[in-house]
Amino acid sequence: QLSAQVRDFGAQLENQREVMQADFEASLRATEFELVSKIVDPLESARAETREVDDRYRRLWAETTKKTEEQGAKAACNEERFSKLEGNIQVLRVQIARLAQNSSRTPSPQGNR
Questions:
Q1: Within a 10 A sphere around the Cβ of 110, how many other Cβ atoms?
Q2: What does the pLDDT look like over 9-40, one tens digit per residue?
Q3: Which contiguous run of DSSP H or E holds residue 20?
């Protein structure tokens, strides 16, 4: 009769152990779900947003760099044109001065009549 009681007690202990094990595993899964939903999911979301912002920044940087280079090229071209215009103006001034000198040296057509 004692061994039957010991077996029953052992069976009860084993049953309690299984119930406690199941409760512990359920609690562990709930805690894991809570951690994932409160920490991991927002962290992944933040990482995705960071990647999007980083991609936008890189695109804007590339566009800005390209536009800056284009503006620099246009400015250099304009500078070259301006320089040529200044040269042409100087040539015209010299030609005007020569024409003015030549017209003051030659008698007027009315004077030759």
A1: 6
A2: 999 999 999 999 999 999 999 999 888 888 88
A3: helix 2-35
